[in-house]
Design goal:
1 helix; globular; four-stranded antiparallel beta sheet
Amino acid sequence: MIVWRKSTHSEGQDAGGTCVEMADLGTSIGVRDSKNPRAGHLTLTRTALHQLTETIRHSDK
């Protein structure tokens, strides 16, 4: 059974409900939009997820 967890960095409903959920898929991580879970999910390796979050963290805002 896949257990989806909402990111602690997701915004609340007052901010439009921007929510990201992640699930441990064993050798990879699933990422999906909590407002539309039936739309599917991205599957990323742990390395790719780390690179993505580091890129976002260090990008100009």
